[in-house]
């Protein structure tokens, strides 16, 4: 049939670098969600809604 060859690549990362990369991926994901919400007009909040969410008294 098919002759399939696999190449195994090992990458060594320290935990700080791993956590940093994970945080960057999560942040970029949130940016993408926010960009989509802005394009569609969803998730816009009024100033009063924002103040309530941040528990700021006006």
Write the layout of secondary structure elements.
Elements: H1 15-40, H2 47-53
Assign a percent range to the helix content: 55-70%
- Overall shape: it is elongated
Rounded to an integer in angstroms, the radius of gyration calculated over CA atoms is 21 Å
Strand percent estimate: under 5%
Word description of this protein:
By secondary structure, this protein is an all-alpha fold. It has 2 helices and no strands. The chain has helices spanning 15-40, 47-53. The protein is elongated. It starts with 14 loop residues before the first helix and ends in a 5-residue tail after the last helix. The model has no long low-confidence stretch (mean pLDDT 81).
Question: What keywords describe this structure?
Answer:
58 residues, mainly alpha, 2 helices, elongated
In short:
The protein is mainly alpha-helical. 57% of the residues lie in helices and 0% in strands. It is elongated and about 65 Å long.
